[in-house]
Amino acid sequence: MSSGEGGNGDDGETESGGSGGSSDADRGRGGDWRDRGRQTLDWLVNASAAQRMAISLAALVFAVIVGGILVFVSGFVATCRQPVLYIPLLGESCYNPAQVYWTMLEGAFGSTANLARTLQETTLLLFTGLSVAVAFRAGLFNVGTQGQMVLGALATGLALVPLGSVLPDSIIGMLVAIPLGLVVGAIVGGFWGFIPGAMKAYADANEVITTIMLNFVATGLAFYLVSEHLGDPGTGSVQTVPVPSVARLPPTIDGSRFSVIALVGALLVAVAIYLLYDRTVLGYELRTSGLQESAAEYSGVDAKRNVVTSMSLSGALGGIAGAVYVMMVHYRWQTGMPALGFDGIAVSVLAGNNPIGVVPAALLFGGLKSGSFAVDFALGVPGELVVVLRGLIILFVAMPEFFRMLGKYYDFGSDPEPVATDGGERR
Amino acid sequence: MDRRTFVASLGVGATVGLAGCVIGDNGDESGEDINVGMVYSSGGLGDESFNDMAHNGVEQAEADFGISYQNAEPDSPADMNDYQREFAGSDEYDLVCCIGFDHVTDLVQNAQEFSDQQFVLVDAVAETEDGDLVENVDNYVFREHEGSFQVGHLAGLLTTMEFDHGGASTASEDPHIGFVGGEETAIIDRFEAGYIAGAEYADEDIEVSTAYAGSWDDPGTGQEIATTMYDNGADIVFHAAGATGGGVFEAAQSAERYAIGVDDDQSISAEGFSDVIVASMVKRVNTAVYESIESVVDDDFEGGSVEDLGLEEDGVEAVVGQDFEGELPEEITDALVESREGIIDGDIDVPEET
């Protein structure tokens, strides 16, 4: 939809001088309109952190308003058992937008159980978002986090089952089982990231294509293995035998499958990745290798190996997401895993591929998912409409950041173009 | 797909509204205090088969007993646990209906934890690790292979003769039929096994192509598979693939061949394709839901039991499409009656696995 509207509209609200707002008059003067677009991009690229935050907030408000109108109008078209409001001449509306948003907010943060559901989703999205961000930082687009997660989850699910009879069902057993599950998930997910990495480095195969394809291979392979050879024979579902209780992360809040240990772990990983990429030589080399191979090679870096390393690291994080999913949420592998890997792409883009930025982005996604669960459950609003609301919020919030990245790419703004020698980083 | 579901749910909503006016007043209101939570399977409402059948059951109960209900549609099996717990934990629901076999593992745990909550499970049996039935779960399973045998028998008879009615036709040479499954699970294997056995019962030499779409809600893939089958000479394709089956009907119409629906009488639920849906393997999920609600209304809910429904109990049945009623040759209808009796009497042994 209106990409221009998102960028310009927000701009008009936050900037006083007014380079934004493509009004009808602007459209009449074609060249001027183009200039304004350029100015807007320049401004976006140069925006300070506070300004960017203000843009995001304004975008959120805007998305809520547009979504509210949409819900309200849909309410007149839909038929329901109990209309919520009646307007003379117009008829009855089935949905009350204020109530929808309130339920959403309450569903995300309103009670400890709801908060646990939000944080559960946030934790998983942190891992997948970081997986995508790590690759992005090295100039690689890993669309394969989903597949890496699916196989990581399967490997973890299978590896942990026999532990039930070996380990004591105590803290000590847990200290063995849970790290083991994480390592298995990381290795298998990492291997699934290593393949496209090696193909990219040594055969010049576009990683976007290979990772997309490997997603299908991963899902199909996992389904085949479980349905034909490794599945739980006791059920009609395509799933593995549940993991023993020693391999389950202890729930922090009663009745919810959320463990604060996993969340803290995810936050530590985010900080570690930030430090790795911004403070270490290895991180510098990883960044430069993906951005400009020849320049990296010239300065004595093995760029090919680093591309493989970046993709393996990205895959390992996807695999860990799968491992956490098995040990904290589902306690088994089952076909039809949620699309956390794909959501991770959106989380990473929203965060501007900054490992620390992934934290609030994952929380927003987690809250929206948990909130829409509550709306779907409590109000008669169809799930699809809630998905539209969610999509609108994400679209509006991500659009300014997207245009900023675009502007940066096409050399808008006053900063010099990033080059490999400064690690593609701008200060 | 999402848009389709949305539009379909609008349609359903409209029907509910009408039904409320027409039937509601005459209904028995004894179930007014009864509140039912429905958790569907991941194909979701609007599939015009499995989930919509369950929904029909609860709508009927609403009309007859005045109960109220709440729908929940999980996006993936991972969400089922959340919905089960949300319903059970809220203390506001007298009965929670879990539709589909993907529910079973979580339900076994949740039912034991919420031991005061009454549950119904369709398409699977909730058993503890020791093999005991969970006390507060009423289980409904179907002998799909029996009904599938019937439609396989019908398809086998049709493909070996010249038949021309509705939007399609068959030729007698090269008898060939097809089967499209959703995901390759044990239940769908029963459909396939019964279907093939039925076709072979009609004629040993019939070629049966089978394929799985790998999804319950991917009509595009369903259409691709079915088109290939029709191109290769299949006269009739039977699907057991939920919403994916919509693609099979599309393919049948463009190829001017026949298709067989599943779960609901799809010549009615997917009426746009009634000219090619020669029959449907109806699985009365709606009856299962309705009966379980009725038992709660009458206060004689029985947990820890298994209702095993086949041809004899009218749990499954081969229903001729609405455009084909009375149009099928008598030799076919007679043969179907005969094979039905054979299965009920145990003279015909229908395999459960391919």
Automatic annotation (TrEMBL), chain A:
Record's keyword annotation contains Endoplasmic reticulum: no
Membrane topology: Multi-pass membrane protein
Domain of life according to the entry: Archaea
TM ranges: 57-78, 150-167, 173-195, 207-226, 258-277, 313-333, 345-365, 377-399
Predominant location category: membrane
Keywords: Cell membrane, Membrane, Transmembrane, Transmembrane helix
Localization of this protein: Cell membrane
Region (Disordered): 1-32
GO CC terms, sorted: plasma membrane
InterPro entries xrefs: ABC_transp_permease (IPR001851)
GO function term, MF aspect, one: transmembrane transporter activity
Record protein name field: ABC transporter permease
Organism: Natronoglomus mannanivorans
UniProtKB/TrEMBL annotation, chain B:
PROSITE patterns in alphabetical order: PROKAR_LIPOPROTEIN
Membrane topology: Lipid-anchor
UniProt-listed CDD domains: PBP1_PrnA-like
Cell compartments where the protein resides: Cell membrane
Source domain of life: Archaea
Entry annotated with the keyword Membrane: yes
Cross-referenced Pfam families: Bmp
Residue intervals of the ABC transporter substrate-binding protein PnrA-like domain: 35-352
InterPro entries linked: BMP_lipoprotein, Peripla_BP_I, PnrA-like
Gene3D superfamilies: 3.40.50.2300
Keywords, ordered alphabetically: Cell membrane, Lipoprotein, Membrane, Signal
Chief localisation class: membrane
Family: Belongs to the BMP lipoprotein family.
Protein's UniProt name: BMP family protein
Organism: Natronoglomus mannanivorans
Highest classification ranks of the organism: Archaea, Methanobacteriati, Methanobacteriota, Stenosarchaea group, Halobacteria
